């Protein structure tokens, strides 16, 4: 078992993607985490996508490795007090009555996670991924000039806020060890999203420019090989190497592409040429040849392709855990620690994992 | 207030965004973080190669030391020191090794294997410094068939399965802005350092931590990956449209390239939106009452919405819709962000004076652990060489001057480094 955080007890009252992700990371690295669900079950149990069994894959992803505890119907404050009495950390939603925890356990670190916080001008706004990405400045960057901006995918800002909550929580627990007095932190998904946006707001502060989509294209492009898109990054000093690797030596002295300035101007034409040459090529092979020639490239994997990806398989990325009486597949931990090797544990133990396959 | 990581020394061998952001988080939490560069290889975000792009600099002017004046480097290296040292010179490598041995954390986001080649890997250095924590951030991990592949944010987003989920209808995979993977890697690496610190408090021992950035980022789309793994297929991306809400898109507003995002997740929100549009016909239309019907009629709804939003102010309209219970937001540009009432109320910006770039409001981090001390500006190139060599390694002034003359340490980069 992973032991880094084994001395911490955590209660997860968050009822959000961000909060439950924060607590799952705690469980990943050895903390004893109890998910406290309302009597009717966590609302996240109803969130799509669903497994073929009908169970929520969001709930599975966020809560494997935790002890699942349902409050009794009409739960009294004494039930929560009992659970909170020994906790080092409680992760709670905005507006949670912290006194319910403080009154029994003044030493508990409390991290509050929500979209917009409990004060400020948007405290009554409704969030969600596209809303926070629009506000963050990220959406304005994403997509093609002349077309609508794109928000991205999934609930990435919420997960990132879960990481921010994890960082906040561990920082306060470390400070507590040294006698620090602060026991409370708050994390907003909307602010996390803004902190992850490319710092064009500082560019604006430096010189007043207001960056828009397509103003400054990255030196990269995508081509469709046999069934899979490949992204190729063309640094000026690797242009010739790329052309030779792809059998496109004729482009090296082509006046449209010979100099970086003209190449940028004719970027679409360059990628038309590359596309024509690669249409029937195997994507993995193209990427391997380009990487061998020190040209940065990658396959744009579809999510179904990642399930059988040989690289991830060789690394033992996919794992099987036991959750609510069933063996289910989950993703491996986000980082690997040398002093906490992944080991098999007894199947009944929360957090027991084995590498798939 | 004393901050959680005060007393902790971090050495950062990083470049661009992901690694420096991890160090910036640790510095914000109180660690003494030194960003290390070479005279022959500057941090790429110092923009020291090629013709300077005016938009990177205060008042569009690169100035005499352009590498100290770019908003890119200066955004991610607040509260740090700068050491510029040539690891290809034996004395430089020896000083670096001594510095790491006097530190708590080494953070590295260069390609896997670099630390080992330099003899700066955890296995080697932990003999002298058993408490040392070494965190590496290789894109694809230290082992596996793709571990030698080089990567940048956009190619990592492709490899993580995200880009194929983001596309205009029928279009090609899209990257999120210039690079969305870097701040994700930054958060993950900071989390890794903190986790290893908890372990060290209990055992007294440091360790080697690997943050494979692609795998770590896959957590952010975990449910979608699990669904595809189980079912063997995935939804086809369709712009901003999603399965659980409709309409869910952005619509043009007054001004050039100005937009409002609307996310109608419930039937009640649809009714509220129709009322705000003063379109009782839409509100009464039974075919639009539920999600399935609205999806079937999305072309008609999109047209009605765009006709209504076009010409309206995105900020005022979003506030009005939110007040009416409809999730909506302006698609903010950098200028809008600078004026955001929410971010201002949150204390997101801090005003910092940089000796060569002037005084500006800097975007912050989403951590609120009590009152924070004032931020210090990103360091100028090599600004802390003498301090580190004398205060940490105990070198005398004559030795430091000799190393400077031999360009083992430097405060200007080699040409085009």
Automatic annotation (TrEMBL), chain A:
InterPro entries: CoA-transferase_III, CoA-Trfase_fam_III, CoA-Trfase_III_dom3_sf, CoA-Trfase_III_dom_1_sf. The keyword Transcription does not apply. Pfam families: CoA_transf_3. SUPFAM superfamilies: CoA-transferase family III (CaiB/BaiF). GO terms for molecular function: transferase activity. Transmembrane segments: none annotated. The keyword Translocase does not apply. Keywords: Transferase. PANTHER family: ALPHA-METHYLACYL-COA RACEMASE (PTHR48228:SF5), SUCCINYL-COA--D-CITRAMALATE COA-TRANSFERASE (PTHR48228). This is Crotonobetainyl-CoA:carnitine CoA-transferase CaiB. It comes from Paracoccus tibetensis.
From TrEMBL, chain B:
Keywords: Transferase. Signal peptide: none annotated. GO terms for molecular function: transferase activity. InterPro entries: CoA-transferase_III (IPR050509), CoA-Trfase_fam_III (IPR003673), CoA-Trfase_III_dom3_sf (IPR044855), CoA-Trfase_III_dom_1_sf (IPR023606). It comes from the Bacteria. PANTHER family: L-CARNITINE COA-TRANSFERASE, SUCCINYL-COA--D-CITRAMALATE COA-TRANSFERASE. This is Crotonobetainyl-CoA:carnitine CoA-transferase CaiB. It comes from Paracoccus tibetensis. The lineage of its organism: Bacteria, Pseudomonadati, Pseudomonadota, Alphaproteobacteria, Rhodobacterales.
């Amino acid at each position: 078992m992973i032991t880094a955080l084994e001395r911490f007890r955590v209660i997860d009252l968050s009822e959000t993607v961000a909060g439950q992700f924060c607590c799952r990371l705690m469980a990943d690295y050895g903390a004893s985490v109890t998910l406290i669900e309302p009597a009717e079950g966590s609302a996240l149990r109803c969130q799509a996508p669903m497994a073929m069994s009908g169970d929520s894959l969001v709930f599975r992803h966020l809560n494997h490795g935790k002890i699942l505890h349902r409050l009794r119907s009409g739960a009294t404050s004494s039930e929560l007090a009992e659970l909170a009495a020994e906790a080092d950390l409680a992760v709670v939603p905005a507006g949670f009555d912290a006194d319910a925890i403080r009154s029994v356990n003044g030493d508990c670190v409390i991290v509050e996670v929500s979209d917009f916080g409990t004060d400020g001008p948007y405290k009554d706004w409704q969030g969600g991924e596209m809303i926070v990405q629009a506000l963050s400045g990220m959406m304005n960057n994403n997509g093609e000039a002349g077309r609508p901006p794109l928000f991205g995918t999934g609930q990435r800002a919420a997960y990132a806020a879960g990481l921010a909550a994890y960082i906040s929580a561990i920082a306060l627990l470390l400070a507590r060890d040294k006698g620090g007095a602060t026991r409370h932190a708050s994390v907003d998904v909307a602010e996390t999203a803004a902190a992850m946006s490319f710092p064009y707001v500082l560019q604006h502060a430096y010189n007043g420019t207001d960056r828009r989509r397509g103003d400054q294209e990255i030196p990269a492009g995508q081509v469709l090989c046999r069934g899979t898109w490949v992204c190729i990054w063309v640094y000026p000093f690797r242009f010739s190497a790329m052309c030779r690797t792809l059998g496109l030596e004729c482009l090296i002295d082509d006046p449209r592409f010979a100099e970086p300035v003209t190449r940028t101007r004719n970027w679409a034409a360059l990628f038309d040429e590359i596309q024509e040459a690669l249409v029937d090529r195997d994507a993995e092979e193209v990427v391997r040849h380009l990487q061998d020639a020190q040209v940065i490239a990658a396959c744009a994997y579809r999510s179904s392709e990642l399930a059988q990806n040989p690289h991830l398989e060789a690394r033992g990325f996919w794992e099987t855990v036991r959750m609510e009486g069933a063996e289910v597949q989950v993703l491996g931990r986000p980082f690997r620690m040398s002093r906490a090797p992944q080991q098999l544990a007894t199947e009944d133990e929360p957090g027991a994992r084995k590498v798939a396959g | 207030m004393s901050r959680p990581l005060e007393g902790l020394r971090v050495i950062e061998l990083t470049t661009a965004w992901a690694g420096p952001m991890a160090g910036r988080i640790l510095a914000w939490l109180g660690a003494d973080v030194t960003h290390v560069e070479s005279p022959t290889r500057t941090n790429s975000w110092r923009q020291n190669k090629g013709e300077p792009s005016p938009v990177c600099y205060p008042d569009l002017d690169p100035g005499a030391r352009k590498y100290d004046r770019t908003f890119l480097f200066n955004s991610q290296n607040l509260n740090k020191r700068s050491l510029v040292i040539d690891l290809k010179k034996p004395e430089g490598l020896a000083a670096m090794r001594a510095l790491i041995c006097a530190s708590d954390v080494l953070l590295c986001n260069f390609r896997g294997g670099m630390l080992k080649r330099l003899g700066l890997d955890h296995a080697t250095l932990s003999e002298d410094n058993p408490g040392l924590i070494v965190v590496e951030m290789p894109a694809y991990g230290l082992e596996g068939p793709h571990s030698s592949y080089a990567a940048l944010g956009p190619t990592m987003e492709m490899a993580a399965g995200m880009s194929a989920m983001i596309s205009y209808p029928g279009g090609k995979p899209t990257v999120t802005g210039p690079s969305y993977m870097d701040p994700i890697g930054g958060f993950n690496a900071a989390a890794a350092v903190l986790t290893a610190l908890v372990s060290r408090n209990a055992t007294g021992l440091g360790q080697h931590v690997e943050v494979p950035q692609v795998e770590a980022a896959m957590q952010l789309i975990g449910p979608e990956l699990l669904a595809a793994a189980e079912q063997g297929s995935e939804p086809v991306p369709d712009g901003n449209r999603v399965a659980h809400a409709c309409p869910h898109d952005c619509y043009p507003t007054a001004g050039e390239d100005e937009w409002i995002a609307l996310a109608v997740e419930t039937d009640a929100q649809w009714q509220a939106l129709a009322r705000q549009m003063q379109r009782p016909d839409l509100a009464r239309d039974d075919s639009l009452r539920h999600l399935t019907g609205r999806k079937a009629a999305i072309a008609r709804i999109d047209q009605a919405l765009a006709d209504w939003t076009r010409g309206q102010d995105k900020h005022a309209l979003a506030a009005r819709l939110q007040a009416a219970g409809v999730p909506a937001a302006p698609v903010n540009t950098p200028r809008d962000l600078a004026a955001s009432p929410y971010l201002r109320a949150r204390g997101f910006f801090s005003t910092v004076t940089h000796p060569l770039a002037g005084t500006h409001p800097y975007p912050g981090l989403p951590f609120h652990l009590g009152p924070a001390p004032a931020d210090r500006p990103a360091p100028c190139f090599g600004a802390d060489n003498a301090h580190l060599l004398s205060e940490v390694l105990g070198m005398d002034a004559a030795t430091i001057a000799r190393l400077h003359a031999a360009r083992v340490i430097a405060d200007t980069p080699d040409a085009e480094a």
